[in-house]
Amino acid sequence: MASDSSVRHPEKLHRPSNPSPRKPAWIRVKAPTSPGFGETWRTVRENKLATVCEEASCPNIGECWARKHATFMILGDICTRACAFCNVATGKPRAVNAAEPDSVARSVAALGLKHVVITSVDRDDLDDGGAGHFARCIAAVRAAAPETTIEVLTPDFRNKSGALEAVIAAAPDVFNHNLETVPRLYPTIRPGARYYHSLRLLDQAKTMDGALFTKSGIMVGLGEERIEVLQVMDDLRAAGVDFLTIGQYLQPTPKHAAVARFVPPDEFDDYKQVAAAKGFLLVASSPLTRSSYHADRDFARLREARGQRTEAG
């Protein structure tokens, strides 16, 4: 639960003029009941960690936690921004927990994860945006579980000097930063961010380490046009991004941005084919795709795809 200093659904969030349409059959998921889900839940609680799976109300939590795959959310559970799509609490964050890197590392080792995703809230209040804490978490996981591959899903660090450099120097296996939507919708959907700054962050990450896999994702169903999605694909390829994820936006509460429409599965298939033709190493595109959904399997596919392209080239 968020503290009294936070607001789960701040008034400044976009208020939809119309309710979201009824969820179609292809977007519904089963409630979590497996033993694996319970073990993951206990490990997260014992180590007093937050997960984006819970905080962002991810529809895939039952499937992922059953496989002992959780996305750890560091730097607290209160965000300094209020995006119109996100269910994470907004307000004044607490002090950074210096013991958190070790807690993340213990959880990774306890769950026996082959691949871990570490993300965070936005921490615009910190001088480095939380980049140093990301680096410490990477180092702690490397020490506790040296065979585990590490994916980081970072905020944009809002031009904090040296922030991106600190994360890349810690040598994650995948650097992920989501564009979330098309540039036209940023003022209402992602007002605290800038599209071209996020794009530049991805480009700089690849420039700093050409061997690093870079990744980004967008949501559809927010009112974007197909031609805008294709332009985002071109922008990401120009920035050297390897892996693109596309998923359906789901409205967390009535106070968040409304779903403009539920994109049918065949349109997701079309986006996948187009993106593959544009040169992405890997594309995940489906109604239930989320940034870290099947991230462990996808990392193996990424390495395989790079190897095949290298041999072909």
Describe this structure in words.
By secondary structure, this protein is α/β, with parallel strands linked by helices. It has one domain (28-312): TIM Barrel (Alpha-Beta Barrel). It has helices at 35-46, 52-55, 61-66, 100-111, 131-144, 163-169, 186-189, 195-208, 226-238, 265-277, 295-312; strands at 6-7, 50-51, 71-74, 78-79, 89-91, 115-120, 149-153, 174-176, 213-220, 243-248, 282-285. The strands form 2 sheets. It has an 8-stranded mixed sheet with strand order 2-3-6-7-8-9-10-11, sandwiched between helices. The longest helix is centred in the C-terminal third of the chain and has 18 residues, at 295-312. The radius of gyration is 18 Å and the shape is globular.
Which tags fit this structure?
single chain; 313 residues; alpha/beta; TIM Barrel; eight-stranded mixed beta sheet; three-stranded mixed beta sheet; 11 helices; 11 strands; 37% helix; disordered N terminus
Strand content: 5-15%
Name the CATH architecture.
Answer: Alpha-Beta Barrel
The coarse overall form would be globular
Order of helices and strands: EHEHHEEEHEHEHEHHEHEHEH
CATH homology superfamily: Aldolase class I
Provide the CATH top-level class.
Alpha Beta
Portion in helices: 25-40%
Mean pLDDT: 86
Strand sequence of the main sheet, in spatial order?
Answer: 2-3-6-7-8-9-10-11
Secondary structure class reads alpha/beta
Instruction: Please name the CATH topology.
Output: TIM Barrel
Terminus-to-terminus distance: 51 Å
Gyration radius, rounded: 18 Å
| Count of extended strands | 11
Largest sheet, in brief, is:
8 strands, mixed
Uncertain stretches: 1-17
Number of helices: 11
